[in-house]
Each structure stands twice: as C-alpha cells, then as structure tokens.
Design goal:
It contains 3 helices and 10 strands; from the N terminus they run ββββββαββαβαβ. It is of the alpha+beta class and 147 residues long. The strands form 4 sheets. A 4-stranded mixed beta sheet has the order 7-8-9-10, with helices on both faces. A two-stranded antiparallel ribbon has the order 1-2.
Length: 147
C-alpha cells in the first residue's frame, strides 16, 4: 500500500508498521528489543543484535559494540561483532567469547570479530550498521574468524 507519493505506507490493516521487534512481557508491557532489519537469522534461529551488543558492552574492557549479520554458507547469516575497546584496554575475541559464555545462547556467540577505532554513527547518534555491512562487504574491516 502506498501513501500517495510512491512511498510504502507505514499503516496496514490499522497497525503502524515501525519495523521494531518486541514482545509483551508478563506484566503486559510492550518491550522493544530490536529493529526487524537488524535481527540476524542464523540456521532458523533469531539472534537479537541489540541484546548481543548489550551483552558485549557489559564487558569491562569494551567501550562500544555493534553487531551485524553477515552471510554464512552454512547458517545463512552469522553475527559479526564490531568492538571498540576502552582507551588503554586490550580485549580479544577469546575474552569476549568467554565473557558471553553464560550470558547468551551458544548459537549467539560470534565467530567473527572486528576491533575498530569507532562505531560509525548516523546524524542522530545511532549506530550506522549499513556502513559496517558495507565495510565488511568491501573487505575494509580486519576480521578475526574463530573456528
């Protein structure tokens, strides 16, 4: 359904289609967990990029982390964790995987990491995952792949 100027309408069947993903919790509140375009589908399972980012950013040596889905021949998509270490800190893919071990499901653990100087941001300060996906596709990220 178009809005009259060639753009898809955000309203359909009386619902506002925001592109957000969420659920209604046990108290009846709506919890927004991710954007539909940023959820990673891996081997038939859904991985929330935002939840994985928050888990990674809880590591004491991580300043920021953005997670994007990248193509995978076996699983369709897998998470790529792009991590900005805190100034003066040294953090490794092994340290992050060990830290995440009891915090997320095993299939959420990234096999690919890129340690970067900064996460690109949009004009309103949100992580610009389109830029990270393009950098990955163009081979502009140094990616560590775990076996």
């Amino acid at each position: 359904v178009e809005d009259g100027v060639g753009e898809p309408s955000k309203f359909h069947d009386g619902w506002l289609r925001t592109g957000d993903v969420g659920y209604v919790d046990s108290r009846g509140y709506c919890q927004i967990t991710d954007r539909a375009k940023d959820v990673i589908k891996s081997g038939g399972e859904w991985i929330s990029s935002v939840e994985l980012e928050n888990a990674i950013m809880a590591h004491p040596d991580v300043l920021e982390a953005a997670v994007v889905g990248v193509p995978d021949p076996k699983w369709e998509e897998r998470p790529l964790a792009c991590i900005v270490p805190k100034p003066g800190a040294t953090v490794t893919d092994q340290a992050i995987n060990d830290f995440l071990g009891d915090k997320v499901a095993k299939w959420w653990l990234p096999e690919r990491y890129a340690f970067i100087a900064e996460v690109p941001k949009t004009s309103v300060g949100k992580f610009d995952k389109k830029v990270l996906r393009a950098q990955y596709a163009d081979g502009k990220l140094t990616v560590i792949t775990r076996e």
